[in-house]
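Hey team,

Filing this mostly as a record. A colleague (T.K.) asked me to run one chain through the structure pipeline before their review meeting, and I want the input and output archived in the tracker in case anyone asks later how it was produced. No errors, nothing strange. Just documentation.

Input sequence:
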Amino acid sequence: QVQLVESGGGLVQAGGSLRLSCAASGGTFSWYSVGWFRQAPGKEREFVASISWSGGRTFYADSVKGRFTISRNSNKNTLYLQMNSLKPEDTAVYYCAAEFTDQELSEPSYWGQGTQVTVSS
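Output structure:
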């Protein structure tokens, strides 16, 4: 049973930074893509970034390219999202997710509970 638990959310001023973490448990993730989605109030959940666990191939939404960096520590079974130059429009609940695929994360089978990120202007 794969379980994902996010942490690191909080309140930050525009232009600031946060690092989200996702602790993964329940098995090996060698053939998974893992990453992040977010959902703002009144909007649909959207893809943010993903990484293949084994090869480190990354994908980013256009809205976060150049500002966010996804990474993972295989020894710790932990996924990270470094968020820099944050904007108010980045405000959302951020969800860690995983999918059995070597491609871009699109239809996750596993989800975390979410962590709130609020960017003030």
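Quick notes for T.K.: The mean pLDDT is 95. The chain has no helices and eleven strands.
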